[in-house]
Amino acid sequence: MNLEADVCIVGAGPGGALLGYLLAKKGISTIVLERHVGIDKEFRGEHLNQDGEQVLKKHGLYEQVEAAGLLLMERVEYWQHGRVIKTVTPGAGEQHVGIHVPQKKLLSAIIGASEHYQDYKLMMGTKVTELLFNETGSVTGLKAMNGEQEVTIKSKIVVGADGRFSTVRKLAEIPFSKTTHGYDLLWAKIRSPHNWEPTIKNALVNGQQLALFTQAGGFIQFGWNIEEDSYPTLKKQSCAPFIEQAIEAFPELAESIRSQIQSWDDFILLKVQSSHSPTWVKDGVLIMGDAAHTMTPTGAFGINLSLLDADVLADVLSEALDKQNFSTAQLKGFEEARRAHTEKLQEQQRVKEMTYQDNFAEPILS
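RE: above sequence
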């Protein structure tokens, strides 16, 4: 199969999906490739902050996402010895301290809006295998496998929105370095009790963060920080003491935790890392979102940064296509607009992780 488009986006996560929508809305022919066969893949960063919310509102998508289903967080709490010692509530003029949006609902809304445009095509279950180059070394498209069928796509620009293990970044030979942060993360999910209020709760267990996040649809997601690379050793032991620590931190959930988290099979491991690339662009190709700047879970910045990337990148690509200039110098405008803000937030994450225990230094009455 041979196809052509102005832009080929690899990865239909929130950033790639939004970019596809924005380009198609501008009348730019766009093909979006996604290696998964469905949009309900496992996804853990599902909290929007004010930045992500404003991007969706700017482009007329927030109401559609809201109709699909989201949940406004009323407050952030810090717990110690089974009671609240500190509370963070929305600031003046704000309605929430974060928004939970299940990825499936977010992507359904964005992709559904995109499919109204004739210049848009989404190909699920499609894995990139090769980038195409011209005689000067500029990327001119790619090859991929759609099931058992090989697909060749000629495009003026290829965008890698394919996450922390980006195939596009690797094939384009864009260098990157990763930084570990001394901890990994275990996720687990339970049904929320009746009349549970939409909150984010934090506790300190053996010097490590334990956080829980209320989710739309009647769930609570736990995030346990554990020492980096310690999971193989932990799995050889009983998880009962681990679960009891969560109950001690949040006693109101004792019954739900004991009935719904019973073995290591109820946990999902996330290897925590951030990444840095000295450049995000080359002639005819660029990377965005986690492919360009992997974030840690701290502060839930990742999804919001990918949406901000898409917002800026749509205009940069539109200008490049108007000028028929797909050089590194032309595409560099995206990186110049986004790098400083991204690296500032990566540093904020590092500081928050180092100072997390300060939130529990002494009781603070709410």
